[in-house]
Amino acid sequence: MYHSTICSFMFSANVFQPRMLVLRLSNTLKNQNVRIGHCTKVPRNVNLEKLQHGYLFPEIERHELMHLRMYPNANVIDLGIGDTTQPLPTVVTSSMVDFVRGLSTATGYRGYGPEQGEKALRKAIVVAFYKDLGIKPSEVFVSDGAQCDISRLQLLMGPNLKTAVQDPSFPAYIDSSVIIGQAGKFVDETGKYKNIEYMTCGPQSDFFPDLPSIPRTQLIFFNSPNNPTGHAATRKQLEQLVDFARVNGSIIVFDSAYSAYITDDSPKSIYEIPGAKEVAIEVSSFSKFAGFTGVRLGWTVVPEELLYSNGFPVVHDYNRIMCTCFNGASNIVQAGGLACLSPEGLKAVRSIVDYYMENARILVDALTSLGLTVYGGKNAPYVWVHFPGSKSWNVFAEILEKTHIITVPGSGFGPGGEEYIRISAFGLRDSIIEASQRLKYLLYHQEN
Amino acid sequence: MYHSTICSFMFSANVFQPRMLVLRLSNTLKNQNVRIGHCTKVPRNVNLEKLQHGYLFPEIERHELMHLRMYPNANVIDLGIGDTTQPLPTVVTSSMVDFVRGLSTATGYRGYGPEQGEKALRKAIVVAFYKDLGIKPSEVFVSDGAQCDISRLQLLMGPNLKTAVQDPSFPAYIDSSVIIGQAGKFVDETGKYKNIEYMTCGPQSDFFPDLPSIPRTQLIFFNSPNNPTGHAATRKQLEQLVDFARVNGSIIVFDSAYSAYITDDSPKSIYEIPGAKEVAIEVSSFSKFAGFTGVRLGWTVVPEELLYSNGFPVVHDYNRIMCTCFNGASNIVQAGGLACLSPEGLKAVRSIVDYYMENARILVDALTSLGLTVYGGKNAPYVWVHFPGSKSWNVFAEILEKTHIITVPGSGFGPGGEEYIRISAFGLRDSIIEASQRLKYLLYHQEN
User: Fold this and answer.
1) Which terminal Cβ of chain A has fewer Cβ within 10 Å, N or C?
2) What is the third-level CATH fold of A90-343?
3) Which parts of chain A register pLDDT below 70?
């Protein structure tokens, strides 16, 4: 972390004339340890000051790069960031190719599209994911991805709300809450932000919060299947959650980015629960469902029935945010998304999901055979492994050092992730098998 | 605008039990005047409450739709929203086609890319736009467009700053400032937000603010060539602006989205001005430069030399925002952007810019021939027409009613745009010629 010297003293001393300064910058500004800078009089955003470290996944990448510098010939297997590896079905790419080719013709060229997404795609999303659930295309907002939508939802909600998150959870919920100014002070002793409610979701409670003990908050982020634990909330659990939100007058932001990975009868959308439309926003994505991690496409559903305390429909304000702070997802990518939702497209992306789930099975089998306690991998492409008594960053470092496998330390997802490691099942089959063998070798020899 | 009744009374009466309510919704929720809703206890974001009306361009579209409903057979010419109409050069689409095809192959598939953009593209942007200006690829952040970046810059800066904008100006600066919470109360009498500094930029001062009369603000949004006036700030003007920012310790957010349209020697980047790197962020876009309005690609430059008052580099926090609130521009689109910046691509997009500028010349000639005072159209694809003594929304309505041409009322860009109309030069040549003739006919007959 960077700490300035001269300039901050100037600021404390209330000397406001801008000056040319020689500053010693952190090593993140590579190869330039001495630099001429200029202090503006603009104070750093206090919300950004509160962030404790870099965003989790770029941090993991940084560790990978450092490792490669140390072991340039290592065959590193990356099961860290949940990044898709399987080629897109040709039905999807053909459709994008046609659209792109059209852009070079007078009849096929398209300029600005609707900020909310193309009508045909909004309709196809309803048919594919919300059939018989009463969601209307006008309630679906197409975007460049769920992570971006989470920040836009925070812009929508503003700084004056209290938020609850599952612990552990996908770090964008807490980080975006900090950035918008909801989170309050970070407390070193607990590893938690003061104004965020951490709902422990561990195996002792079937990865579901003990709701009666959770204070009322205005927002509740809930992710199912959960990243990182891999747990898909049961129908009964989600009924309890919706009931809890209704009684408390809270809004649930339900993240269903991994719903395509559900193999049992757990609900794939919060709107399968009666009454959810009046308390829940749903965020979802083509990233993991269709391998669009780099192509970028997602959506958010804001039902008309969802109202602020003064009766104003949330959907109107979300529409305003999408028109002002966003300008529509790429029309090329939307054409690809539409192709994913055709019967042929759905079949093709389904087989890729199955491929990753077979990877998950291989990883779960390998780890279970060693006597480890393993969660996830059944309804999600993540395997959540318990190392009782160990610090997760230490486990992460040891696995990396001894097997050249990148994982993610559980505590990166919140204090509730301590003692755990998340292993991603995204990857080529050969790498997954190789990784399983390396882990078996390492852990077997540690035990014996 | 929607005002609820029952629910807000409940809220004022402090009755907190959520209830099922029958609510009369505004006509924006079409075809459903009576609806069952549920009031959560989540208050509406006070910042969103302060927005005065819908975002300008969707509002203009709404007028167009209403007009088409009234005149279903009218041959409406849309010179309102600045939307590109010319097909993309094949050198650009071929490159995207190759990339998309690759996504269906094992070797060509790509998942998540760097949140900051592909290295090759960041480098190509530097070569194409910042040659000899000392900008480094690591200071360039590729995005899905300038409008989206403006909101991310507001997230970066937070609510506790005072902002100055040109008046008139592109509405996203003010609206995003309202959404993040910088703007304060809207004052009906002035048509201005209390905490925003409106820097009048009219013809009396060569479309440049009278800087000695402008109070110090932390942020200054400055757009050159300006949307809507079409004025490109001269080198001398920009030197004054940079000097003003340095003395005041302000940060300039310089929007150069239309720089490709500059035909004289006005600077195309703020970094052409010595010392600008220490006080300015630059936002730019492929939208108007390369016809990417629907394809979506832009970038923002945050120089390492730009420091907060405590000496912390702004670029570190912007990187954190991009990693947390954004997930990279579509890799397909980035491939297209890279092709635009090849020698062949640059030549091809240049000829499209020339086409729109010829449109602008035709419009300027037609309007000038009627004795109207016309600005812009020389360094920007917008023509800014003065109708002294008239309300711009009335002029907009009359032109639409009598010629079926969509324009944009100047007051939509701020109180300084009153009495003006913005006419976009984006369009097919035939439409531009037809529009010129209709305007000539209408305005000639009004005069005589």
Assistant:
1) C
2) Aspartate Aminotransferase; domain 2 (3.40.640)
3) 1-37, 447-448
